[in-house]
Structure formats: structure tokens, C-alpha cells
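Q: Entry one of two.
A:
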Amino acid sequence: MNDTNKKVTLLIYRGDQNGALEKFETEVSEGMVVLDALLQIQMKDAPDLAFRYNCHGGRCTSCIAEINGKTALMCKTRLKNLPLDEPVVVKPVGHFPVIKDLVPDITRILKIKKPEPEQF
């Protein structure tokens, strides 16, 4: 992608369980991933946009989302590999309740019982 002034339209899920898609537009640069676009939108247009990320390198999996109908990591999904002539749809993963925007409630998978400390 050599268009330095190319823009992408994103339809991003906003709200809780009863949320809706909201339209945003941002500039695209070489090598950009969906997470980069969300960070730009958060900085410029929607400071309250909620999503998770940690490593920005595909290791932690905290930025998992549904991108154009497929479960993927936002930090690994390159915009150049998506059809940018139509909006990129970003939703929270479908099998978890939504706390806010793209933040799923993952507490049910975190409820792992700690082993009791051994007594000596």
C-alpha cells in the first residue's frame, strides 16, 4: 500500500451488551494493523473507546476481536490485507459478554481455583 493519504472506514462496536456499530475514519500508513487504527481513533476522535491490548506483538492475545466476521488479533491483522474499499467491521469476540465497546468479560475463564499451599 503506497497511498500515504489513504483512509479507512471502521465500523466499531460501541456500548455494552446492547451496543451498536459506530462509524470512524482514519488515515492508513504502511504496515498498519487494526490496533494502530483503533489507537489513532482513540487519540483523535473517541478518547473513551475501550479495547484491550498489552504486547502489540501477538503474544498476549488480549486484543482478540471479531474483524470482518472472523476472530483475529487486532495487533496482527494488517489493514493492507483487508478490503479497504468497504468498512472494516470490528466487534468484540462473540462468545463473551461485553463490558464496554471491544472489551469482553473474560472473568469466567479467569476463575481458576488456586491450589492450597502445601503444609510442611
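Q: Entry two of two.
A:
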Amino acid sequence: MANILWHDRKRHLGLPLSFTKYSMSEDRLFVETGFLNLEQNEVRLYRILDLQLKRSFGQRLFGVGSIFVSSSDKSLGTFEIKNIKNSANVKEMLSVQVEQQREAKRVVGREYMSNDVDFDDDNDGEV
């Protein structure tokens, strides 16, 4: 089993009353859902493209927040780590681990550009 750096559950009213579990190892993020029928998904950290933290007023009252994760993983794609404690710290830890894995795997993040943007490739002033 991987060395788990962080784990938590999806929370309701600040209490871990859910069957959704989240955990992170040095190179993977795991999402496990279900009670009788379990489903476990994982995404390699170097596949994570973007992280966003959101904390509504109700979430702030109960000391939780949600992290929206955009990844290039085919099974998970964009997903939410919902209602977790210490969400700002978890987002920062996840961001650091993502960068470490990208460096270790020599993966370069590429920004996607729209097709309607024209560039002057030869620097002659014409598009």
C-alpha cells in the first residue's frame, strides 16, 4: 500500500457522515465512494492540470471547503473533493505534490489555446 500523506471524508454539517473517502499518497489521489458497492478511482498527481478552492458561507461556518480538480485522467476528468476540513492547507499540499511529481516525471504542463487566436509566427507584422 502507498504511503498516505492525507485522508479525509466528505462531510455534512462539518461531520464525517458520508461514504465518500479521499486520500493522497506521494504520487496518487484516491476517491472511494459507496457503502455496499465500492468504487475506487485514482488519478496520478502529474495528470492534475488545475486546482480551485471554493468555500461558501455555509462551508465556512462548518469549517470545511471544496477543491475542484481538473485533470487529464480519462476516468475522473474534472471532479470535486467536497466538504473537507482544512481545505486551504490540503489544496496547498496537493499543489506542492503535483509540482514535485511533474518534476520527477519530467512532465510539462501545456496551456490550451483557442483556435480563434492568431499569432505572428515569423515576426513580420502580419498574422
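A: Comment on entry two: Residues 111-119 have pLDDT under 50 and may be disordered. The two ends are 54 Å apart (CA to CA).
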